[in-house]
Specification:
228 residues, alpha/beta, six-stranded parallel beta sheet, 11 helices, globular
């Protein structure tokens, strides 16, 4: 695969740079659901499909968050009422320390490799207003020049405006930028709406047959391709 090497690389956050901690999710609602992290991990693909469809239909980020977590519990066998209660319990933990808190151990080395090769980084994410705090807690905030969080912007992906704000703050053009995210019709289509090349990060293997954009198993694999 041969890609045009950008000057600026923008990322989504959840399921691109940081990932759901299924053990923490299980613990947050153990008294309600009584499940372990492995059961919830296996259930996540169905939740992601429901979330993607809901966002496409215009669902708010907050309602989408609740849907995602509730569907994970439902897909793991928890009845709807208990799954909704488990999602509310999980949200309390999430508000204290974002449940998308797991970071691949190889990620900082890969990000540093890209910086050393001349790449510049930013983030454009649908989040809840505390993404900068999360990135600081997991130790990768210094890699990024800007963090554009939809809850603070009042606009969310796939609206091209949120991508344009990142470009403006980095004083970068769309032509010299690439975006990497994990949901085709939110991340890839949204970035392209702003004139930005995009790639799909499919670490969880949800889109094995996707051919609408270059597909990578991880950010680390993308950076290795861009900076051999």
């Amino acid at each position: 695969m041969s890609l045009r090497v950008p000057k600026v690389l923008l990322f989504d956050a959840g399921n691109t740079l940081v990932f759901l901690d299924h053990d923490a999710l299980a613990s947050s609602a153990h008294d309600i659901a009584g499940l372990g992290g492995d059961a919830l991990r296996r259930a996540e693909p169905l939740a992601k499909k429901s979330y993607e469809a809901a966002l496409s239909a215009g669902m708010s980020h907050e309602d989408g968050w609740q849907l995602y977590i509730r569907t994970i519990f439902e897909a793991a066998g928890v009845p709807f009422t208990d799954a909704a209660e488990a999602a509310r319990a999980a949200r309390v933990v999430h508000d204290d320390f974002n449940l998308w808190r797991k970071m691949p151990p190889e990620l900082p080395v890969a990000l540093a490799r890209g910086l050393n090769a001349g790449l510049r980084y930013g983030i454009v994410s649908n989040s809840e207003g505390r993404l900068t705090e999360l990135l600081d807690r997991v130790g990768i905030l210094p890699f990024f020049e800007v963090v554009v969080d939809s809850a603070l912007e009042g606009v969310r992906k796939p609206d091209p405006e949120i991508f344009r704000r990142a470009l403006s703050r980095m004083q970068a053009s769309a032509a010299e930028t690439m975006y990497a995210g994990d949901i085709p019709n939110v991340d890839v289509d949204g970035a392209r709406g702003a004139g930005i090349d995009a790639v799909l990060i499919d670490t969880l293997g949800h889109y094995p047959h996707y051919s609408g954009a270059p597909r990578f198993a991880s950010v680390e694999a993308l950076i290795a391709e861009l900076c051999p």
